[in-house]
Amino acid sequence: MASSEHPAVGCKTCTFFSEAILKTIRGEAVGENIIRLAASFDPKCATCKYTLDSFARLAPNSPLQLTCPMRLDCFPQKRFFFRTGCGCWDHSAYHLELLPSSELAPTSVHYKIIDADTIDISSLKRWPEYCEQHHEDCRPTPTQPPVTDMILIDVDEHRLVQFPGTPPKYTTLSYVWGVLPDILETRISNFSTLQLPSSLASPEILPRLPLTIQDAIKVTRDMGQRYLWVDRLCIIQDDEANKSQQIASMASIYANSQFTIIAADGADANTGLHGVGSSRPFPELPILEFSPECRMRPGPETEEARYFTTWHNRAWTFQERLLSRRSLVFFRGSVIWQCKCSVWVEGVAAEPDGMVVDETWRTEKKRPAHLAFDRHFTFELKTPKRPDFRYFEGLVRQYQRRRMTYQADGLRAFSGILDVLSRTYDGGFLHGMPKMFFDVAMLWEPQAGSKPRLVAPGSRELMFPSWSWASFQGNVANNLSDHTFGNNPSIELTPVVRWYHAPADEPISFVNLTPHLARMFKQGGVGGLDLKFFDVPTIDTGGLMVEKEKLGWLLHGSVSVASFRMQPEKEETSKLVRVAWEEEVAPFVNYHFLDSSGKIVGRLKVPFTREDPVLEKDALCECIVISEGKAYYTRSKWLKEIYLPEWGLNEETRELEEFHFYNVLWVEQREGIAYRRGCGTIWKEGWDRQNPEVRNIVLG
């Protein structure tokens, strides 16, 4: 690897690329075909070798061939990217950005020489100062008022301070707890002690303070801030009232922070912040000399999936990052600043250093805009003016892929996101489900490798309502939702059940009122609507065998009920797959619904675990209708092949341009309560032939 002290002299290939770079720097036009075959890269040239090695690291399973063309894209904004021009899918996603030196681009983005071991935190102070002065979109909003009654770490006096009213300015820390012995945390018994001056620096307490928190205290102080919020110390861990209040306020805590320190390298709280309390573990990026006049440096490594760490895979850190207006990310030995307007990286000169950044390539929709280091992995929680179910569903998918130590935190670790979204989602959320999209939201399906969140191994009792996505850990998806929204949706969904919620000591509510009203407006308005439609029924929960606090888990409604014989789509169901939590579980099993004559009329997707044996052939399953759908073949030919296969498997429906169906739940009755076991679709006429009955049901 070429070092910053001894850059290598370029070869003929490097000289060729150097000419194009220097022309671009001078403002001269260059052609688009700045290409050399991989075979022309001299392995004895340090610059050529680094370039080839970079692509080898990016795509280890798809090595470059000697005939692969290597293309240099040069943009007038003085941005440069190496990428392959062979068109191979395996290579097309990879690129190598090159940053010019300060001599080549003194007033635009260029690389800076930085200390190889230590981060100069004080030099990064310009980032929040510049953002505060110039980025109006990054300032606190009235919709996110500050939290009152906060505990903060005073980084000057090394102690905890409690602020009953509006707190002063503070920073926050997002990190991985891990499992460490004798780690310091605030409890009722030591809270008074930790408020004493210098208590956190005392010989008795400092050794129990994790290195990541110690380094975050130093960073906060060096960045000119006085107070820091860290969950382990600023929440009294055995005070349930304080803990509940703080968790419920997560959205405001992170949104009102000056910035969040992200310890993205940490496997646990003792990793520390590399370059602050310990040296950087990653090698310095080399300076590449294409010619004596043309020195470049590779762009900084970005937060991409291949570099994701334990921090990127933890559930709690997902919302901590999303809720933060500004983030100071310690990642792979470097520091990244990300706010709503910019991404800046240590070692790269940008606006806070007086550079003039030309972003016209973004408005021109030039290809590299999404590849550049300062536009990759922008991570923020959007609050669109109009609620967007697909955006919400995407957040759930990302969140559910992450791990958590305590599965009971399944909704707590997502509560801050729900708090923000509830300001635009009419009616808010019920156990993680948006009320205004309730009927669509009920169509979620766990994916292969997911498993239910059970209160104990071997138990059948769930930690969350069976109708909520939170009842499963692992990836979940709502595949039909991709086809139910937009100007010309290929599936039209209609609610058919009025769901009611009757928690203890609270009034009964009409859960999916908004979807029903939307249906009425679509069908011609609500003129002449009988006001009794808005009445809620009397619901007697006295006979239900359920704890009082879990009455809020139950949905009450009048539904169409029918039973169908089931047949596995494939006979083989024993194949296991390995999933994120390092346990072998079987994938989902698809079943066909059969009517009384044995015809296929629908499909059911059922999660398979060791606790839940696969259904026997011809097993009889009770199902309930939750919504009605109409699919249009002319709008999406994939529906018949992938999402509604029963459409093409039944000779009566195979040639139809429109397919009318019901979305159904397979339910299991236990002590007067129905629990969701699977979600599927059934041809509408096939359902009606089964002589269904209407029944009041309690869905738990």
Automatic annotation (TrEMBL):
Residues 170-320 form the Heterokaryon incompatibility domain. PANTHER family: DOMAIN PROTEIN, PUTATIVE-RELATED, HETEROKARYON INCOMPATIBILITY DOMAIN-CONTAINING PROTEIN. This is Heterokaryon incompatibility domain-containing protein. It comes from the Eukaryota. It comes from Podospora pseudoanserina. Pfam families: HET (PF06985). InterPro entries: HET.
